């Protein structure tokens, strides 16, 4: 990293483990982190023990200056943030920032987003890319502006999604790829070698490169209005969105296809988990495989040999459940489950 970059004062904002990879990459690259902003400690668990964010734990370990504001418009926090005299702010998996915060540093505020913008703007880009059966996704660094996830693109990098990859798998790939891209972005911004570009300019080229396909997800998608919206004039390109995941999104509709149901299961694994009901109890499914064959039982009906498999019928075949959690029980493989469950 250049001496010029080592002199650049950076404030990092983030909360979960996903953000730690980016902060760690910047620290290891020699960036000058003058402050770290993360969520306040919160009580959690049966004992209501105060829970620290992953970013806080890392910042404390590295001796970084830490800020934990309850409200981002709090005058005391804003005064302390201004006092850090940041040249640049970086946001990874944090709260929505008010303009008074993101507009503060002279080099602006950079966000790392878990999709190839402008596709999958919103709170759950990893989940929706997998749910929709995308074969490729990626990460984007961009400048924050007034509207959510709409700022000018700085850099992007894509990577493939395997047909059985879960959202958790994609999350793990993405945090490492995103961390490297973020370091490259900061280096380019400070050196003045990155040309910002509006997101609209990325629509056509990115869509043709990805060959992105939106698949129907039945009631799960329509329930929260995750509909495609046309962009452009004669040659309109469809934008796909990534709204927050709600309970109705996670409920499996067995009237769907094996392809769509399998994608829903892996797109919501490990959290919050796609679910159905087994003898009136909630059954979360974390891993599955498809069987395409004319079903001999009604959609949603279960079939098992009591030892090695449990499958549910859908419109064009079956979904074999491989890794599950029954209400009130721990997560387990299907073999473990069948050893202790009687139908």
From TrEMBL:
Belongs to the Fmt family. (6S)-5,6,7,8-tetrahydrofolate binds at residues 115-118. Residues 9-186 form the Formyl transferase N-terminal domain. This is Methionyl-tRNA formyltransferase. It holds the Pfam family Formyl_trans_N. It is an enzyme of class 2 (transferase). Attaches a formyl group to the free amino group of methionyl-tRNA(fMet). The formyl group appears to play a dual role in the initiator identity of N-formylmethionyl-tRNA by promoting its recognition by IF2 and preventing the misappropriation of this tRNA by the elongation apparatus. Keywords: Protein biosynthesis, Transferase.
